[in-house]
Amino acid sequence: MRCKSCDHTLWNLPGNTCPECGTLFSRSLYEFQPYAVIFKCPHCAQPYYGAGAKGHLVPPEFECQSCHNSITMESCVLLPVPGRELDAVAVGVPVPWTTEGSIFKRFWATCLSALISPRVLGLAISTHEPRLKRASTFFVAVVGLLLAVSLVCLFGQSALMVFALGAAGGPSSGSGGVAVPTTALFASQLGPGFLIGMITPIAYAMYIPIAAAVGALTFRMLGGDLMQETARVARTLPFARAMEILLWSSGTLLVSLVPCVGSFAAVWWVVSAAIMTSAFVTARASQAASARGAVAMVVGMVAPILVGCGVAAVGVYFLVASAMSSMVGSPSGGPNPFSMSPNASAPIVAPLAPEVEDEVEPQN
Which of 82, 27, 77 is nearest to 52 (CA)? Predict the structure, then answer.
């Protein structure tokens, strides 16, 4: 909670005047997260929680239970609940990507928010209607940057390899063989990495809707939509919202560009999306449903990967088994002479003709 004129903090202040610039402020102009701000009585410091829809006192004027003095919300001293200092006034804070300014500044601000403060980003999403178009453009920017950096590294590595082999006398196909052309060598070094780099964005684009659908279905199965009997809570985590959360949290994928820690990018993405979902569900429904939201998002992101790995493992197993069977089997397709099965028919071998001794003709 800061002054709108000089950005000075207004927590734990009596009165309605900013001590830095003297500007008058009103507590009712600030929107808070429900149960995230403590309103202390100005006479005895008895704490009360802001339980209203905007985190305000309900009712705004009443008699203190401790000192029995009449108090109003405007006269109370405000403090954030311990642990909620960063997101107590997050309502109304926009996603950095949706604000005005330099595209680079907005891009890095959104990525850092997904990396460091995903809860604030989740609360910011909860204050707006689904913005799948803007979230998709941010995701395209993330995967585009990853693809560009990967291609630059691949071209540099391939060129360095060709230069090193050329300095060593040039590669050849063997002892006394014909030298491999430089173009073919460069293509052989660049080809596999280029193919993987082009497939990765497509894989991400296919993965996000599947994970969102599984996460939204899991949240409904866990009973998250039944925490309160209101029409708004019934739409707490639909498919569009789950997709939006995954798209905004994709900024964590930039960790894959950092050496030695790039392998943790996928784990960071899951954790960030789970925290964002928890904050989103808390703002849209209740604190009791936040854990269900986090669990649902983790299941939604991990389950497709496990199923895909299982299907791939089964496919590889049958492929290898088929290849081994064709290698061991006889070329003509007949019975396998190397089979140890007792039911396998033995190869038919033609009997050898008995040797006939040469007859010795009698001499006359």
Answer: 27
